[in-house]
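It would be a great kindness if you could assist me with a short task in structural biology. Thank you for your consideration; the sequence and its tokens are set out here.
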Amino acid sequence: MIEIRDLTFSYHKENVLNSIDLTIEDGKLTAIMGENGSGKTTLIKNLLGSLSPKMGNILIDGDDIGDLNDKKRSSLFSYIPQSIDGVFNFYAMDVVLFGLAGELGLIKTPGKEELIRADQAFDRLGINHLKYRKLSEISGGERQMILIARSLVRDTPYIIMDEPTSSLDYRNQLNVMEIAKNLSKDGKTVILSTHNPSFALFYTDNTIILKDGMIYKSGKSSEVINEENLSFVFDRDINFATVDGKKIIYP
């Protein structure tokens, strides 16, 4: 379980997060929503321990994340950024195996066991055909799948995704959201930031809405994602309709 208590973070003298209090449930898919500049990425970086709060604490199963060393944090969290840079032009298999660097250290190279784990990650995502393709040869959506495979091979209990669908076409956006949902069904705690309220509503268990560095609303997605909250946070009229028993969000 992740417990965030009175978390405040600032760049220089300006607070970006203010008195954040949250409990993120284990084994759930949780969305973080809000406008650009609302603090979503900053909150994620604090969760990962790459930024240190000005005040407050983040507890992981009762342990303060600030007291954990890099190896321990690495064993707890997998991080999937918005995109992967193909400038080094590695093979997809190599990128996935890099996920095991924290386990193997600087000297040991991947052996049979590690290769089996990587094969299983590719197989689970249905991307075996990408194993020996270079990053420059595959699409942005396929690169995102490689990042998810790298997360799977590490087998951490917590998976954090920073706007994982932002640069993808609609089909791949849906693929990523379905994978995130299935990971939570398998017992992983998945946290992702998104600008898409429909994804939060239809795929996630819980949603945290940030506004101006503070929590505006948090709770079950079915309760938090509504016309009133979205209209206030995004400062425009957001409307819902019901089609075949399902909610549809439209401007």
User: Anything to note?
Assistant: The two ends are 36 Å apart (CA to CA). The longest strand covers residues 14-24. The chain has a mean pLDDT of 89. Residues 34 and 210 are 5 Å apart (CA to CA).
